[in-house]
Design a protein that fits this description.
Two copies of one chain form a homodimer.
Chain A: H1 3-15, H2 20-27, E1 32-36, E2 41-43, E3 51-65, E4 71-78, E5 96-109, H3 110-119, H4 121-147, H5 150-167, E6 175-177, H6 182-189, H7 193-205, E7 209-212, E8 215-218, H8 221-227
Antiparallel strand pairs in A: 1-5, 2-5, 3-4, 3-5, 6-8, 7-8
Helix pairs in contact in A: 3-4, 5-7, 5-8, 6-7
Chain A binds a DNA duplex (30 and 30 nucleotides) through helix 7.
DNA sequence: CGGAATGTTGATATGCCTCAACTAAAGTGG
DNA sequence: CCACTTTAGTTGAGGCATATCAACATTCCG
């Protein structure tokens, strides 16, 4: 049995209830592993995906590429996430996905997933739920960028990444390795890099959080969450009755 | 047979292929109609939804309510849309949905939808696709608010609303009735109402678009789309091979 | 017809983007 | 392992865009 698919099962169990038979069916999925260099694209805007990727290690990000060449990062994805289940029923990618640091993904053909969903609807529902949680994360990003102060905006993103990592057991105590550059944070939050840096200084000064060389360290979670108006309800990380 | 569910079928056929049997199964769904006054909430943040709403007439909007009482509007939904299929597999609403102007919705119990999806997986896939298109709209909103100029930002939103309305046959030539207030536009696009108004003036001056008393009139679609960097690819309104 | 909601415009202060210079860290090849 | 190059992060100065506040006009609605 596959450790890789076992990781997917663990992820699905973070929010969904599945029977032993469902879980067993998931482990029968075939896949191939692909290694990605830092900043390498997994898939580009306009591509027609026929496989879905499951993050095995490292981190991926979604982004839009604008006519000017400017990037807008949309969301980040870590071990156990399936970032392009978003593309399962879609012909042409409206966004690209790239690696943040080195990463490894398991590629699962869409046809296999569809067959599995027909045979075991509740597995489909679990992955559907996964895509809905992604959508909730997108909504929160809209609100974050539209309605929060710069400090809360950055703080909120850091809270979200840390909370999700912790829920998946990827943190080392209060520390999480997450090699997102300041430029990328800027292109996520709609801030210039200068302002982003100064905003980060301000968070540092508040002694709630430390971030250097890709290592995020939470010094005072309660206060950081308060500063950032972070309420994890939108991540829906509770198991639902089936 | 129900006209209301026929409207849902039309919507699903905008992007998905379904068999006659699938379509018939959809029309057997039971529902109740609910009328909404302008600005009335259909569902609030924190509620536990047990029904999904299909917009029968008028317009709905999703929004986040911040601790300060400030609203952030997330997206708008018109006839044929199912805005809270987003909540199908989720316990607690992370956002609210309200009416923009008067509206009527058909409420369909989740249990019925789930049974339908088990019996007819491809109907489920079509509605899943619908939720994925919503997610693509959210992503575009992130980029719109984060990376575009004020003029492009407003123009892009108007383009999207008009394009979607037209695809659903809801426009009257180059005109669409859409009673969103300037305050609401501001709370959608992260601009103050003063700036929003001046941005609108600027669009008016460019003679591409007119907007008054809720009526959107497109005067020069090509130029507006260009100004706004609007590319409808992200709406995925093409039928997919099954 | 009167009151409330919505839209419009002007003046002001400031927060942020832009640009630029510099430092520190990481990666590369001899 | 060290010089070199490249990339990432940091800080400062200046000017403009936009949030904020306030006054007013218009439209909507009972």
């Amino acid at each position: 049995m596959s450790d890789t698919m076992a990781a997917l099962n663990r992820k699905l169990l973070e929010h969904s209830r599945l029977t032993a038979a469902d879980l067993r069916a998931v482990t029968t999925l075939n896949y191939t592993i692909r290694a990605l260099d830092p900043n390498e694209d997994l898939i580009r805007q306009g591509d027609d995906p026929s496989v879905s990727a499951l993050v095995v290690s490292g981190m991926l990000a979604r982004y839009h590429l604008l006519p000017s060449g400017k990037r807008q990062y949309i969301s980040y994805h870590m071990e156990g996430d399936m970032p392009d289940s978003q593309a399962l029923f879609i012909e042409k990618m409206d966004h690209a996905v790239c690696a943040i640091g080195s990463a490894r993904v398991a590629l699962i053909p869409h046809v296999q997933l569809l067959k599995l969903f027909e045979a075991r609807p509740f597995v489909g529902f679990a992955i559907w739920r996964e895509t809905l949680i992604d959508a909730a994360i997108f909504r929160e990003a809209i609100t974050n960028n539209g309605a929060r102060t710069k400090v809360a905006r950055l703080g909120h993103l850091l809270c979200e990444l840390f909370y999700r990592a912790k829920a998946s057991g990827l943190t080392d105590g209060e520390t999480f390795y997450m090699p997102i550059s300041l430029v990328q944070f800027g292109e996520t939050l709609g801030m210039s890099i200068a302002t982003l840096n100064r905003t980060l200084q301000s968070l540092r000064k508040s002694r709630t959080v430390e971030l250097q060389r890709g290592t995020l360290h939470i010094r005072d979670w309660e206060r950081l969450a308060k500063i950032s108006q972070f309420d994890p309800a939108y991540l829906h990380l509770k198991k639902a009755p089936r």
